[in-house]
Amino acid sequence: MTVLLTVVVLLPLAAAALLLAVPALAGRAAIWVWIAASAADLALVAWMWWRYDPGQGATGVVGNLAYEVDLRWIPTVDAGYHIGVDGLSLPLLALTGVLFLACAVWSLREPDRPRAQAALFLFLQTACLGTFAALDLILFFVFFDLTIVGMYFVIAGWGHDHARRSALKFFLYTFVGSLALLVGFIGLFLGSEERTFDMVALAANPPLTDSPLAAGLVLLAIGLGLAVKTPLFPFHTWLPDAHTDAPAAGSAILAGILLKLGTYGFVRIAMPILPDAWQRWAMVVVVVGVISVLWGAFVALAQTNVKRMIAYTSVNHMGYVLLGLGAAGLVGQADAEARTIATVGALYQMVGHGLLTGALFLLSGVLWSRGRTYAFDSWGGLARPAPVFAALLAVAAFGSLGLPGFASFIAEFQIFTGALQAAPVATVLAVTGILVTAGLFLVALQRLLTGPTAVPSVGEDSGSDDGDAGDVAPSSRPTEGGATATALRRRPATGMRDVHGPELGAVVPLLVLAVLLGLFPRALLDVIEPAAAAVAQLVAR
User: Fold this and answer.
1) Of 218, 319, 230, which is closest to residue 278 (Cα–Cα)?
2) Closest Cα partner for 104 from 258, 217, 248, 206?
3) % of the chain exceeding 90 in pLDDT
4) How far, in Å, CA of 299 to CA of 65, rounded?
């Protein structure tokens, strides 16, 4: 069974190679190959989940490893093809499978170069799965950088408006961040007694324990690299442009999966391998998390563009994750149980945010396909012509603002409960972020769904990516709010097309899972809790 994880990681890449090697697999057939490969991959992850026992297996980075493979790769620096699954990585592998399958179903409505699009997303899926499965720092870095390359081409090739500029900005920011990450990894190698890049060995025998200054500098380098990817304030400025100009499926993967590579790196690498440094700088992590929470919420509230608003809420939600992980390092201010609860909440937040924000970005794609704009003032009263869209948007918004019954409520409740003992002032400040988030989502729902029904008018030459050009009509006013170069204006709606077919098939499962994890969290908590407890214990060494 050790080969199973390798199959999970490489299966999407094999499907991408098949698509490129067989030109006959074009059009919708290419999308169906993508759906089949993603569905098979998700089924294998589900099998791994069913067979995984958190209480059994070899001792790993933060507990018990399963499906482990360890092969020599670069022996001179003791870097290898070392992969495995534990309570940290398994939920994120499952999230990756779910979101990529949802995006594959969504893309049945996209006729634009489907073979290249499917191959690129499958390549990106392998890169994401490999990052979550990697137990070697060099292997982690390779997959981590491949995700940057894949998303760059997704934004540049299938985005709109200023797609190339936004893709370049995304690439430069995140690539420079990855270079800082590589410097930190080299520092861990040079500071270790064994001279290794193996995460298991480094966590068992942490490097630089006798050199606080060097450990702090290495943590700074790793933290900068991961902060850009997460992203955290003030390294988040690439995010709004990348999301606004990316296609809907690209935004769903960027927010739902790629941002988690940053937070996952904190809990997988920084905390267990640099426990002393994490303890010393934990309050800084908490402060950065709280600033990200408040900054993301208030800036999101000020947006006039739906997609930019959703993008800034990701900064807000990732701030909660950092608050929980930082609280786990405040050993002197909190007991072990509180620190474990905060860590559990942070891990749960990664999964819940991925599902809900992925759904929100896909729903924003409905607006773009119907009206070629994300501007709030170009829409209104959509609950009448598109009641299903309105219901799905309301469910996703209520879930994202932390309403009980959704995964986000379970996550944020545990983060605040665990962090309150260690950092009471910071936690109280972070709670206000929930109030602002609730306000901004309620205002967004009011502006989009209530009042006189109106949709934007765009020029006849703008077309539509799903054949909905009949929903819009020509106009002559300048563009605004993320529209194309064609002019916009509000006009009474005569029949905006409601969500249908692939759109429902992509969004509904994400929301159903978010509700199930909110009502029945035990299935996920049973996997996460042992790993979270192990992280808290390793940090407290």
Assistant:
1) 218
2) 248
3) 64
4) 41
